[in-house]
Amino acid sequence: MVTVVVAAVVLVSAALGYRALRQQRVARTLLIEVPPGIAEERFVRLGGIEQWVSLRGEDARNPVLLVLHGGPGSPYSLFTPALRCWEKDFTVVQWDRRGAGKTLARNGKEGSGEMSFRRMQEDALELCAFLDERLPGRERILLASSAGTLLGLPLVRARPDLFAAYVGTDFNVGVAASEQVAHAETLAWAAKHGSRAEVAWLSRMGADPSRWDVASYNRLMRLRDRTTRDGRGMAAIFPPLMLFSPAHGLRELGAIVEGLGFCTERLFAEMVAFDAHAVAPRVELPFFVFQGDSDVHTPASVAAAYCEALEAPLKHFERMADSGHLGAFVRPERFLELLRRHVLPVVNGRGAQVRA
Q: Which GO molecular function annotations are given, in alphabetical order (predicted)?
């Protein structure tokens, strides 16, 4: 028995030591030490609670890229090491929203307050006011991914004056609209690669999300993650990011896991009811969507149909080849090229007009 305990202690110690070594290596790649760079993380009081925000960029005079994470409780601050290349052109702002990540670790479930996308929209307005004070005069781009669409789209619909452009990826038109395509594709995959039980369950579940419960939705997401063409589903992407993140302790990693279920449970009804066509048939700012062509969660064809119908002063939709859900964050260099080619010229031109 003593031998087993000693062996277990040695293994755990070795694992933690390896984790610490990898964290140190990642931390070195994240150093920004030369002005006018910015590398800050702090808790900001938004909507009556402390919420975690980071600001990173090699030149604080660059446009601000405010990232709205998906999940809805899946903080993209984990992607910070992968997004290092974005920091040459933008000040990247990551925000762990109420109920997620470091914000959940700080406040707990009971201290998270009202959990709704409308409340988060008010939080976002307060965050923009903070950014106006910290980075005055900077053009601001809203980048919304997946469930972040449910916050980002109403936000720019209501306050287009706060942003120079909207950029969507993993664009979530709505669960009902997405399932018109995604359910049939998932069922076809299960018939070929899955089990008879999975086919039967999917058939019973159907494509009408108003009939689903949270448990069924979570099971569907796990199953659908297995259908990714490149084998880079969310279950494969997040664990190494979590394990080797220099910015997250073990308690905070526990909060990330806890927040995934907590946010989905509290926001499920809003997620199922969301319809981008009804929320924002028109927007009053430049609008871009760069969507993975093999996205199994938010199909590109559904996002393209929304963009085709959308009224906007300027709009552009483009498929990212060989990319699935979270393609912007898994292949950040490719996404950066799209930002440079399509978005930055518009934003920089707008900034020049404002300064004139």
A: peptidase activity
